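Late entry, written up from scratch paper. The run itself happened at the end of the previous shift, but nothing got recorded in the book at the time, so transcribing now.
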Amino acid sequence: MKIFLDNIVFDLQKAGGISVYWYELINRFNLSTHDVTFIEQDNDISNIFRKQLDINSSSILYQHAMPIRISRYLSVHLNIDRPSIFHSSYYRICNNPKAVNVVTTHDFIYELFGSGLRKKVHVWQKKKALNNADVIICVSENTKSDLFKFYPDVTSDKVRVIHNAAGNDFFPLDKKLFFSGPYKHILKKKYILYVGGRSSYKNFDLVIEVVSHQADLSLVIVGGGELSARDSRNLSEIAGRYFYIESPSSKDLNLLYNYAYCLLYPSSYEGFGIPIVEAMKAGCPVITSSVSSIPEVAGNAALMVDTICSSEIIAKINDLNNEYFRNAIIDRGLIQGNKFSWDRCFRETIESYKHAFNHKFSQL
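Output as recorded:
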């Protein structure tokens, strides 16, 4: 079974949950015996996860025809004469009838929070991909539910739920050991950790507000691109008490999770929420919201607020001052976090390929 993997997401973002997902799959394909060709644009890629991948150049099919701003929306043409799998990292399809089109649906951010032309273009592209998919992978049960809400014409028997996970780089450290490096001055502080994007639905402004009311706490911000002018203005409320780290290595991110007072993740919507699992696997307490996929992912191992507001979050922060309670949350998190496995995600993805392949070509 020939497999084509479309690495387009590495051209679309520098980092992010979809990049993590694709990186983890490719890592496992590289260690497997599957016959895989990777489709890439012939240009420099700034994505931090692609830079960590060692892909043999002989396994890469380069596309030269169009600028990325155009090619990201176009169907991929492959000159193949035997049935094959085509799996795009971001809503592209292959127009060859010999291809089994696999689409992974991560979330419905644009449908819920988008507007204007960008939303219309995204919805057009996603709908086209879903309508032409032979199998649709949803990263959570909640994402599957949202799929049928926004695209009710999708055929249910081609939808499979395959959960995301967190890598093996996240685990508890012996804090009695001395850790050197660029962040050692941060590790000595009592800090709240914030990981990921800062779009409006992520409620980053609320994170700043919470920290502004906690004089003994600092804020460590990881990822999400450069701080905007708005972010910088709001962060002036806690001047001298925040640190921005653009793209730490997995090793350093694990350090930051381990030494954090908690991960604060007050998102209004998540398709999955990979940082929640990373934190739990690292032994970091999680304070988050009880919406969308988060209860499915966090189980009983996170402190969840029903109303996303500073007073409820601060109450949860204060709960963690109780050492017995804090340790209980950490123990639950270790159990819950380790329920999610990229190895299992990979195995179930291969199973979805085989099922769709056999269904489409069973009569050949």
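The chain is about 40% helix and 15% strand.
(Scratch paper discarded after transcription.)
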